[in-house]
């Protein structure tokens, strides 16, 4: 296990910031933490890096104890590299000297490692350049090269793409992911952007109020959330009212929704009131007179598709994502029906 957090807690004064948080990464895996502002994401990174002490629990890096309630390994002895939103390059140093800054060893060994990592990051031709002569994307690649040059046991990325435009971000995500895999590094990313996390990470953790709600693949977070918070936080979607009509069927105002297998939600008897997760891709257009009537409230053009916010006759708001060739007008009356491949329900509260 390259990274393991076991029941980690952290207090700021008397205020709990992390509350029994646990996660683990195997060697060579990339993980990501996503969650609302103030959930504790950056505090997790700081505790792992050794910039903050834990109040309880343990952190192990590469099998070595790094943090515990009565133990704190200094940051410089943890073998952790960091990459920030601001590339934080030294403006007076060349690219090669920036990358070499944290290396220890003979001049020949340092020069060889700098050449190796710059080639891996496709920056070998810019070794003599200064940071101001580089594009934003090139600066980020140099920052990544500097973080990876000492061959850290763990790479931490603190919202490194937050200041980049959409087109650059897309290319950087691919490049950074490829470099991390090529270097066989273990990495943990903190981000507000779910698309970033899903594109880069093997496993993602949804964090809320200082605890990991679910640590899983992106697919499972989206299609098999383990709680209502994860269901609501990940992607677009709503929780609609329903009733458990059978072990594999939910009755809703949109009609009956049949599951491929018996639902696994515990402690729910037939007839129980439930909340059912409805994603935009669970809704399909139907012919008039079929399905249920709905009205288009809002639309968001996304290129090949459009995300629609709809209101049913009962006033329930749902979302639908449809090919942009449909281009339905706001206010249009349509007919829709549920077509749910992954039926997810939670007990109704209250």
From TrEMBL:
Annotated keywords: ATP-binding, Nucleotide-binding, Transport
Name of protein: ABC transporter ATP-binding protein
GO biological process, alphabetically ordered: quaternary ammonium group transport
SUPFAM superfamilies per record: MOP-like, P-loop containing nucleoside triphosphate hydrolases
PROSITE patterns named in the record: ABC_TRANSPORTER_1, ABC_TRANSPORTER_2
The organism's place on the tree of life at top rank: Bacteria
Record Pfam families: ABC_tran, TOBE_2
GO CC terms in record: ATP-binding cassette (ABC) transporter complex
InterPro entries named among the record's database cross-references: AAA+_ATPase, ABC_SmlMolc_Importer, ABC_transporter-like_ATP-bd, ABC_transporter-like_CS, Mo/tungstate-bd_C_term_dom, P-loop_NTPase, Transp-assoc_OB_typ2
Annotated ranges, domain ABC transporter: 3-234
GO-annotated molecular function: ATP binding; ATP hydrolysis activity; transmembrane transporter activity
